[in-house]
Specification:
Length: 791
């Protein structure tokens, strides 16, 4: 019986190969997209899951009145470990603030990300050098490791894991150190690095004012996290209050609290950070599911539409004694065969598209990886889509009454007709949402690219540098040498560049009102190099001797935050210095469009600040190539610590990386819109063909009675036209809500435009009319005699 059913199934599939091709092809395309989405979703949600204590690791953050941050001070980890028995381990880490040059003979690597960690943090985060984690001997010793890629570059012939001596900085710097061994860089982790430095203790001697470390704790299973969070807050306040007598400061400390964020949150939705990756992952997952659902709808729709061709077969089988269960199984087997073929094709398509997908999302996914979850996910998906797409058509086909169908009185029910039409409307509703989403994303990205940033990134070159220029007198000789090169208009150094990176924050008091401000420590010509606009007062000037001691420039957001009136000349206090405000600059979008401009103070002297290492040069466009060549040639003399390792990036390219996530979303919506429209049109094409073929005799009669071709086209298109209008009416409110919610993630955004909604309607209506008319043309042009000669 199975052999017979299989033959019948294959014969039917071949006989209706046009519909079968549309079914299998549409499903294969949707499945390929879904496979890529499933792989990406699995990848993004499993960061650090190889850590054996994944579920019990938390980062300790702090909440100030004005902001929330993951940065804490070094003593906190030790205090937590000593105070709470439910905390098994507590450790701290710190990132690097410049690119480190490491040399061995003729071989050089540039380590952009060196992670500093104490031994306890290394254990918590499962940092395992090749050969195992070794505890440094003594308080001063640190063990440094480079990832395997960098070690291979420095020591191409090395076969053991023994320590090696290397040089740091320029080849003539004389600075050397020992690399204890290699370590595998786990890119599927929040703690990816070029190298790691492990000590028994880091941050020694730094008090609670040095909030530039990350504190991690590992708790015992079953710990009440909310209770522990409250206890850590009380401990933190107690530590800050030690020796404090100023009542105002005491009151401010009481407003500070801490939070615990699980390791599982850090990659996608950190409590103190941007959750845009999480939102994009959710959006991508929903798109993948919807595309697959649309393909399944096509499958269901066309299977029901084909029901009349199988009616007599079902009637004969039932007369011969076949049960409904047997017929249902037969039809599900046919559908399973189609789904299985679609799955194989989907894997081939996904493999072809995967390089572009990896490049877009900066990942390295592989379908044929041994540990790939697709090994169990694909069979599950195959069975699931077989049931979703096939159960209803199988029930309809197996439910025909033999007495009616053998008399030729069979016709599909109104219920089936309503279902087909409803599914078609649903398909086009999703397509319309994707089109609207794509157009609005394009509009927002265009706005971001053309909007005035408040500063000029063009023609500004960021020079990578390891020298510290905290004092203006140290940078002045370097500036003078740089400015002698033709084409270089200005040069400056600062603690940060406007590329979206976070600035540090300190507490500042103005006229009795205390608040937190971002701080950027700069040198002369900082604002001039970036072409930042002055609102009132002046910029820093070498002609004013006090500018290097206690002068400050604030932005408009700072003025608004403190409610300053006539701020120029007034005093703002921070880091035990009374700063005199000499100027106010206009707000500029240094952190992109998603975050509002932060209240920021700029100063030349800041004892609580970071190191000034970020060099920026303004170069004339027509002399850019010659100026960069001259800089490279003269750099060993200009900046001996960097020596021959002159490296640079263009600031506009660095800033452009802030648009990466939205550009990914744009690409995804573009692909999703194309796929959904293509699959919907495929279904509409086949469905229109079925409907038109079913009305050939009606069309013939109408033509004999005098109906024109235009009237026939109008008749056939009218039903589909109404369905597309209904689809637009349903999808517009949904698209409005979703796109408005997405736009709210931007601090600076466009107003929701009407044009995308109108364009989506025109596109879907036009495609529908063209698709249906192509199918209707054959019936309209046919000779009525051919359709009626047997009547």
């Amino acid at each position: 019986m199975f052999k017979l059913n299989l033959k019948i199934a294959l014969r039917n599939l071949w006989k209706n190969r046009g519909i079968t091709t549309i079914n299998v092809g549409g499903l294969a395309i949707a499945l390929a997209a879904f496979i890529l989405v499933v792989m990406y979703f699995t990848y993004e949600t499993t960061f650090d899951k190889t850590n054996p204590n994944y579920d019990n690791i938390y980062i300790v953050g702090r909440i100030e009145p004005d902001f929330k941050t993951n940065y804490t001070s070094p003593p906190l980890a030790k205090a937590i470990k000593q105070s709470f028995p439910e905390v098994e381990e507590a450790g701290i880490t710190k990132g690097s603030f410049f690119e480190l040059t490491i040399k061995k003979g003729k071989h050089t690597v540039f380590a952009k990300n060196i992670l500093q960690a104490d031994y306890n943090a290394a254990k918590i985060l499962n940092i395992q050098p090749n050969g195992g984690l070794v505890k440094p001997s003594g308080e001063v010793e640190r063990l440094s490791y480079l990832n395997t890629e960098n070690m291979k570059t420095l020591f191409p012939d090395k076969t053991d894991n023994k320590p090696e001596m290397v040089g740091f900085g320029a080849s003539n710097s004389g600075v050397t150190g020992i690399i204890a061994g290699s370590i595998v860089n786990n890119l599927h982790s929040n703690f990816a690095f070029d190298g790691v430095s492990i000590g028994n203790e880091i941050g020694k001697g730094e008090n609670y004012g040095y909030n530039n470390y990350n504190t991690y704790i590992q708790v015992k299973p079953g710990t009440d996290i909310a209770n522990l969070e409250q206890k850590i807050t009380e401990l933190y306040r107690k530590e800050l209050l030690k020796g404090e007598t100023d009542q105002k400061v005491v009151d401010e400390i009481k407003t500070v609290s801490t939070f615990l964020d699980p390791l599982s949150n850090l990659h996608l939705k950190p409590k103190a950070g941007n959750d845009a990756p999480y939102k994009i992952l959710v959006a991508l997952s929903v798109l993948g599911i919807l595309i697959l659902v649309i393909a399944c709808i096509n499958f269901t729709n066309l299977s029901i539409a084909q029901a009349t061709k199988r009616a007599k077969e079902v009637g004969v089988k039932k007369v011969m004694g076949a049960y409904r269960f047997q017929l249902t199984t037969q039809f599900l087997t046919e559908i399973f065969i189609q789904c299985a073929v679609a799955t194989v094709l989907a894997l081939i398509l996904a493999e072809l598209v995967l390089p572009y997908f990896n490049n877009l999302f900066l990942v390295n996914l592989s379908i044929w990886h041994f540990d790939n979850n697709l090994l169990w996910q694909l069979p599950l998906i195959l069975c699931l889509i077989t049931l979703i797409a096939g159960i209803y058509p199988a029930m309809v086909l197996s439910g025909f009454k033999p007495a009616l169908v053998l008399k030729g009185n069979f016709s599909t029910s109104k219920q089936s007709s309503w279902l087909r039409n409803g599914l078609l409307v649903f398909q086009f509703s999703i397509a319309v949402i994707f089109i609207i989403g794509l157009l609005i994303i394009n509009s927002q990205l265009k706005y971001m690219r053309t909007q005035d940033l408040g500063f000029t990134a063009n023609q500004v070159v960021y020079i990578k540098n390891v020298s510290l220029f905290n004092k203006p007198e140290n940078f002045q000789p370097v500036r003078e040498r740089i400015l002698k090169i033709p084409g270089i208009k200005s040069a400056t150094v600062a603690t940060a560049i406007p590329d979206g990176s976070d600035n540090g924050a300190n507490g500042y008091t103005f006229e009795g009102r205390q608040g937190s401000l971002d701080f950027v420590d700069v040198d002369f010509d900082y604002f001039e190099t970036l072409d930042i606009k002055l609102k009132e007062g002046r910029f820093f000037n070498k002609g004013f001797g006090t500018d290097t001691a206690n002068a400050a420039v604030v932005n408009e957001s700072t003025v608004a935050k403190y409610g300053m009136k006539n701020p120029v000349g007034k005093t703002i206090r921070g880091c035990n210095i009374d700063y005199k405000i000499v100027g106010v600059v206009k707000d500029f979008k240094s952190q992109g469009f998603e975050n509002a401009v932060q209240p920021t103070i700029y100063s030349i002297k800041n004892p609580c600040g970071n190191y000034k290492t970020q060099l920026m040069l303004k170069i004339e466009e027509n002399k850019m190539v010659d100026a960069l060549a001259a800089l490279k040639a003269q750099w060993p003399q200009i900046n001996p610590k960097d020596g021959e390792d002159f490296r640079y990036e263009f600031l506009d390219e660095l800033y452009g990386k802030l648009f990466k996530k939205q550009e990914q979303l744009q690409s995804v919506f573009f692909a999703a819109a194309l796929l959904t429209i293509f699959i919907a049109i495929l279904g509409l094409f086949a469905f229109a063909r079925y409907i038109t073929n079913g009305r050939i005799k009606e069309i013939a009669v109408r033509k004999i009675l005098g109906a024109s071709d235009v009237q026939i086209f109008k008749l056939i298109n009218s039903a589909f036209f109404v369905m597309v209008l209904i689809a637009n009416a349903i999808s517009w409110p949904v698209a409005y809500i979703l796109t408005k919610k997405w736009l709210k993630t931007f601090a600076y955004r466009i107003n929701l435009p009407v044009l995308p909604f109108v364009i989506s309607a025109l596109i879907t209506i036009l495609l529908t009319v063209i698709t249906v008319s192509i199918q209707a043309r054959k019936a309209v042009k046919a000779n009525p005699v051919d359709a009626l000669k047997y009547e």
